[in-house]
Design goal:
Blueprint: H1 4-10, H2 38-46, H3 52-68, E1 73-76, H4 80-86, E2 98-101, E3 108-112, H5 116-122, E4 129-132, H6 138-149, E5 154-157, H7 163-172, E6 177-180, H8 182-189, H9 194-215, H10 224-237, E7 243-248, E8 268-275, E9 277-278, E10 281-282, E11 285-291, H11 296-315, H12 322-335, E12 350-352, E13 359-363, E14 376-379, E15 382-385, E16 389-392, E17 395-399, E18 404-406
Parallel strand pairs: 1-5, 3-4, 5-6
Antiparallel strand pairs: 1-2, 2-3, 7-8, 8-11, 9-10, 12-13, 14-17, 15-16, 17-18
Helix pairs in contact: 2-9, 3-8, 6-7, 9-10, 11-12
């Protein structure tokens, strides 16, 4: 059997690529990935595959939360939460498929009968699979299963569950009480383990290294698509499918880019936002740089945005509220004359990041959730002058016992130096 180091070599950065080949998560396909960055190499060597022991710990935490919220179980259909709790990846279709997580029990799966053999290929044999025929209601089967396995008839519904399933449960089994299951799913997924953090660290460093490589190829007259292609190619050399969406000049004043395309000219601001995945865990990095010589206003805005990012990093610590971190960054921007409120800094400060590029919790005004160690967020203040240019700096950060730190290193230095030499 190959050693863990061999998995790194054979599967790029994806230690379980063979097992998860059907997941479509952007895993590496290269068989000869060369990692010259010593810090990244060290990160990769510390990554371990996720296995039954990880899922067991997650079930145990979910079980405690189910009991705390007096829920009989949690319904989960295909998506990141299914992957988080079981490692199983399945497609979403009109046929209801998923599992119910009960306190102190293995998951019980609900599957259409004609898919049973395929389901058995990926679901551990000790976990029960219950089936429904094409002319039967999967919703009645879910209700029946809840009654057999659980005392409370109140069941949490994972937040991404499609509405036809919720309506079907209410219609076919009105005796079930359906409630928001986010305190269970988000309560577990929001706090990352050290294994998860290692994957996030590696993904963020890869994207920064890929950007740095692609930025060396910037030239006058190039298109946004050309730069995006260089970024994809650089990610691929690290064994992952990554991306970066560039905006040139006035298009950078649109936080997520504009449909209007232009070729690169001297004096243009270049804003690039993108990422990749390692073992399913996402990076999200934005860099803004100048092609040519920056104006005084451009330098002032970049410096303001960077100070706002550092203020947010300092404010992000256990015991603070999510909204406090947003406020720390927004205060810097307002005091520099780019306020009030959302006038020029037009979006929240950041979002959670993990198996999804954007996930709960969010660093935004009104979110009073208390920050805990192990939470991971993007930290992405920006200032956008409509029709002129926009500047955003984004790094992901992880909350530690006494503060927070940037994941992946390579922090921004200036408009001319998008990455520190670390």
């Amino acid at each position: 059997m190959p050693r863990r180091r061999d998995f790194l070599k054979i599967g790029g950065l994806t230690l379980l690529a063979a097992v998860r080949a059907s997941a479509g998560q952007g895993y590496g396909q290269s068989s000869s990935v060369q990692v010259e960055d010593a810090r990244l190499q060290k990160m990769l060597e510390s990554i371990e595959p996720f296995g039954p022991e990880d899922f067991q710990l997650r079930w145990q935490k979910a079980s405690r939360l189910l009991t705390e919220y007096k829920l009989g179980g949690l319904w989960v259909e295909p998506g990141p939460t299914m992957q988080y709790f079981t490692g199983v990846n399945w497609w979403r279709s009109e046929r209801t498929f998923g599992f119910i997580l009960f306190p102190d029990k293995n998951p019980v799966w609900i599957c259409s009968a004609f898919e049973l053999d395929r389901a058995r290929e990926i679901i551990p044999p000790e976990q029960e699979i219950r089936t429904w025929e094409e002319n039967e209601s999967p919703f009645l089967l879910i209700g029946k299963t809840v009654r057999e396995y659980s005392g409370p008839k109140k069941i949490g519904i994972e937040p991404s569950t499609r509405v036809f399933i919720v309506y079907g449960l209410r219609r076919d089994d009105p005796g079930l009480e359906l409630v928001d299951g986010s305190p269970i799913s988000e309560g577990c997924r929001g706090i990352k383990s050290q294994k998860e953090i290692k994957c996030l660290e590696a993904a963020n460093r890869i994207t920064k290294l890929a950007y740095r490589e692609a930025f060396r190829k910037i030239r006058e007259g190039m298109t946004q698509d050309e730069l995006a292609g260089f970024i994809r190619e650089a990610h691929a050399r690290y064994g992952v499918a990554g991306s970066g969406g560039p905006s040139f000049g006035p298009a950078s004043s649109f936080p997520h880019g504009s449909r209007k395309r232009k070729n690169l000219e001297k004096g243009d601001i270049i804003l690039v936002d993108g990422g990749c995945r390692v073992e399913g865990y996402s990076s999200d990095v934005t860099r803004t740089l100048i092609f040519g010589r920056a104006t005084g206003l451009q330098k002032k805005i970049w410096d303001t945005v960077r100070r706002a990012q550092l203020a947010a990093l300092k404010a992000c610590r256990p015991g603070a509220a999510c909204q406090d971190v947003d406020r720390a960054a927004r205060r810097v921007i307002e005091e520099a004359g780019f306020g009030p409120g959302y006038k020029y800094f037009s979006h929240r400060l950041g979002h959670g990041i993990g198996l999804e590029g954007h996930e709960y919790p969010y660093l935004v005004q009104g979110n009073q959730l208390i920050i805990q160690p192990g939470m991971t967020f993007s930290n992405e203040p920006g200032i956008y002058l409509p029709g002129e240019f926009g500047i955003r700096i984004e790094d992901c950060m992880v909350v530690t016992e006494d503060g927070a730190r940037i994941m992946g290193g390579l922090e921004a230095v200036s408009l001319e130096e998008p990455f520190a030499a670390d």
